[in-house]
Design a protein that fits this description.
alpha+beta, two-stranded antiparallel sheet, globular
Length: 223
């Protein structure tokens, strides 16, 4: 199996990846095909696919922010069981991020992720792929060390229609497992930067950001 980076919508593997995203994720979580051109060309956005016998069987997208020395996992796709895809993607992603942090003269501080809460929203079937079921994903990410930020979380729909997407938790995996909170300013600044590509922000999201800014710290809770 190969871990290959995609940097252009002209890459044949990107068409396979985008088709896979459409099968796995709900529409509001998938950016339109043509809108991927600039993100893929951005050196800070890293999209990798797991290729097995010329088929894209898994993928992960993440970003490293040198100013904050943090990363964000945008998504992870595991399309088939029995290939150790989760471990393959997680290990390769971690090695890549550690390399980027070392080039920045630091050790990685941690990584953000949005994680579905199946105890609140149970209708996401993820294309019928059992290993992508929210209950499974949530426990895997808990095992990896992710913790839930103490925020009533919503995010803008990637369809850029002004709708607020609910049913997720905003989480952080600290490299120091003893970390119990994050500066609220870091959380607010990060989310504002992360969603800057979307021009149509829902009011609930704006209110959430203002609420975060009103605090000094945000607690990290068990996932």
């Amino acid at each position: 199996m190969e871990y290959k980076r995609i940097t252009s919508i002209e890459d044949p593997n990107f068409k396979k990846l985008h088709d896979l995203m459409g099968e796995i994720f709900p529409p509001e979580e998938v950016l339109e095909y043509d809108l991927w051109k600039e993100p893929l060309e951005d050196p800070g956005i890293r999209v990798f696919v797991a290729v097995d016998q010329d088929q894209v069987v898994g993928a992960t997208e993440y970003r490293y922010y040198p100013n904050w020395n943090i990363a964000m996992t945008d998504f992870t796709i595991i399309s088939k069981p029995g290939l150790s895809l989760g471990r393959f993607l997680a290990q390769n992603r971690q090695r890549d991020l550690q390399k980027l942090a070392a080039e920045n003269g630091k050790e990685l501080f941690g990584m953000f992720a949005e994680i579905y809460d199946p105890y609140r929203v149970e209708h996401h079937e993820f294309g019928g792929v059992k290993v992508m079921h929210p209950y499974v994903r949530r426990e895997v990410l808990s095992h990896l060390g992710y913790k839930r930020l103490d925020v009533n979380y919503v995010h803008p729909s990637w369809e850029n229609n002004g709708e607020a997407v609910t049913g997720l938790d905003f989480c952080f995996m600290p490299m120091n497992d003893g970390l119990e909170s994050l500066p609220a300013s870091l959380v607010a600044d990060f989310l504002t930067t992360y969603y800057s590509i979307l021009s149509n922000k829902p009011q609930k999201w704006v209110e959430m950001i203002e609420g975060i800014k009103s605090k000094e710290t945000i607690a990290l809770l068990p996932l």
